[in-house]
Amino acid sequence: MKRKYLGSEKRYILRSEKDWAAETHEYLPELCDQLQTAKISRRDFLRQACLLGMAAPVAYGLAGALTGRAAFIPPAMAAAKKGGILRVSMRVQEMSDPAAFDWTEKSNVARFMVEYLTRTKADNTTVPYLAESWEASDDLKEWVFKLRKGITWSNGDEFTSEDVAHTVNRWLDPDNGSSNLGLFGAMVEEGSDGKKRGIANAVEVIDKHTIKFNLKQAALAMPENFYNYPTSIMHRGFGKDYKADLAANPIGTGPFSLADFSIGEKAILKRTRDWWAGDFNLDEIHYYDHGEDTNAWIAALVSKQVDMVYRVPNQSVETIKRVPHLELHPVTTAQTAVMRFRVSEKPFDNKKLRQAVAACMDHAEILKVAFRDAGVVAENHHVCPIHPEYAKLPPLKRDVEKAKALLKEAGHGGGIALEIASGDTDGPWMTDACAVFKQQCEPAGITVNINKMPSNQYWEVWDKAPWGYTSWTHRALGTMVLGLAYRKGVPWNECAYDNPAFDKALDDAEATLDVNERRKKIAVCEKIIQDDAIIPQPFWRTVYKATSKRVKGHATHPTFYHQFHNVWLDDA
User: Fold this and answer.
1) Taken in order 388, 391, 397, 403, is the CA torsion positive or negative?
2) Does the structure show a pLDDT above 80 at 191?
3) Which DSSP string do the residues of 315-344 spell out, in sequence order?
4) CA–CA distance, 227 with 276 (Å, rounded to integer)
5) DSSP secondary structure string for all residues of 401-419
6) 384 domain-assigned
7) CA 327 to CA 208: how far, in whole Å?
8) Is pLDDT of 194 > 90?
9) What's 123's domain CATH number?
């Protein structure tokens, strides 16, 4: 690669950024033009360039060159200290099959043992991990991933393409119940039995360290999809030569082993070998489960029993601020909860009824009362303003008269009583939100009864209850969550939603590289979901993490993924 030296500025840039881009994916020259003409943000450029296979350092340098800004170089940090035990308060759940993980906490224990093809950093850019690079065909229907050489599993076996093929094929098998069937929809088709499964030749092993994914339609976000929490790469014997139970068979490519594990109590991880990716400062990571009582989490942190809590409940933020040895970390996220209807169940199979209920919602009031204004209002379509492809639709306004008219059209002019299930799975604010919405519905003749249940009981019925309030975590792209939650027949489609027009619109959005054009297409998806009124969605949450000030080098991930490779402990 040719470079030009810029004299006294003592830095280098690419001699011809567009010439270099033309040697890779054909879309990169246009991406460069969009950045230079301010049609896209620097963050969007970095995300797109990295997704198309550009190395992260080159992408950052190119962005600086194109905008006249030198690439950011972080200030020198104090030398990290080696060793020590990081103690974290977090739920310790069953940890059998990562492909079926339904909680981020499960993956946080697992991710120091089993790892991912890619890694999405705290700044929402996706970079290589077990894969050293990737490239896509111009039509985005073929993706080739080059795997790193020299990586071994903890049992001594070499990490190869066969491991990746075995893992992905398990995701695409409906009998394994993986939510990844929805995420990788471009590799999935519906069989004669009505089940979604992988298409023929979806996964192709090219050689020992090269693997190819053949798609039925274009898909932009393959690299980002490979860092969803149920997408860790497993040994080729997992679920075949030995039982699909990671806790019982903790074979991984990471540097840590599972020294002690007890559901609901603790998970003790110890670094037992060198890490292929370089240094890892910590010797051990201890997770302690302090139960469902959020006060116990905070008490453990305040009393220095632990160094970090997985998250800080909204009502505990001011407490953390007052403790001198603690540090609060707020994060803007796409975490949310949706008051979703299961449209296959009466009376919510009636679209007019759903629209009547949705018309009663004052999103801003629910955010203010239930969550202390710590977030932004949502728009009933599950695409967040921080998603790069988000399209702003006309604002929703509470309209009681419209709700009454729709209710009458639905055949319930005399009023109706409905029940919403809530398990406070992310805190008491969830029932508080339901209580505010209950009041908002009353003037329209809609009586909302709140079925408050324990969180574990809610998760037994979250995809079955006719009406429920379900929490959803952050994902880097709006297309990711739409594919997981609303495609016909995917495992996490809790609404039982089946709209061919929506599926087609999502396919079109996923196939569009240009972020501005993709925004137009995602607007179609948003409007379809909004008009079908399947998810009254009050707000997006600002979330909080807290640590002891002795914890250094930590960056809070918007999905609460634990990336501790730069973390060290300062007891000075």
Assistant:
1) negative
2) yes
3) GGHHHHHT-TTEEEEEEEEEEEEEEEE-TT
4) 19
5) HHHHHHHHHTT-TT-EEEE
6) yes
7) 46
8) no
9) 3.90.76.10
d(CA 198, CA 189): 6
Residue that is written with structure tokens 């009362």 in the block: 369
> Are 271 and 353 within one domain?
no
Let me know if residue 551 belongs to a domain.
yes
Based on the structure, what is the number of domains in the chain?
Answer: 4
Band of the pLDDT at 43, cuts 50, 70, 90? low
Q: Which residue has the tokens 């068979």?
A: 249
Cβ proximity of 269 and 259 under 8 Å: yes
Largest CA distance in the chain: 80
Q: For 156, how many CA atoms within 13 A lie in the half-sphere containing its CB?
A: 0
Dihedral angle of Cα 167, 107, 472, 177, to the nearest 10 degrees: 30
- Rounded distance between C-alpha atoms, residue 30 and residue 515, angstroms: 11
pTM value is: 0.81
What length does the chain have?
Answer: 572
Examine the domain organization and report whether 366 and 395 are in the same domain. Answer: yes
What is the per-residue pLDDT for 422?
A: 97
Q: Verify that 369 and 282 share a domain, yes or no.
A: no
In 232-307, alpha helices (H): 294-302
> In terms of domains, do 371 and 511 share one?
yes
In a domain, 349, yes or no: yes
Check: CB of residue 301 under 8 Å from CB of residue 321.
Answer: no
CA-to-CA separations, 565 to 76, 107, 283, 483, in angstroms, rounded: 17, 15, 11, 30
Domain span at residue 117? 86-225
What is the rounded CA–CA span in Å between residue 253 and residue 233?
Answer: 9
Query: Using CA atoms, how far apart are residues 297 and 544, in angstroms rounded to an integer?
Result: 13
pLDDT category, 565, cuts 50, 70, 90?
very high
Q: Tokens 């020992």 label which residue?
A: 208
Residues 6+ apart with CB under 8 A from 264: 92, 93, 289, 291
| Dihedral pair phi/psi, residue 467, rounded to 5° | -140, 125
Angle between helices 42-51 and 56-67 (to 10 degrees): 140
Of 104, 8, 420, 85, nearest to 256 by C-alpha is 85
- The reported pLDDT for the residue numbered 256 is 98
262 and 148 belong to one structural domain? no
Residue 77 lies inside a defined structural domain of this protein: no
Helix (H, G, I), strand (E, B) or coil at 275: strand
Evaluate the omega torsion of the peptide bond into residue 74 and state whether it is cis, within 30 degrees of 0.
no
Distance in angstroms between the alpha carbons of the first and the last residue of the chain: 45
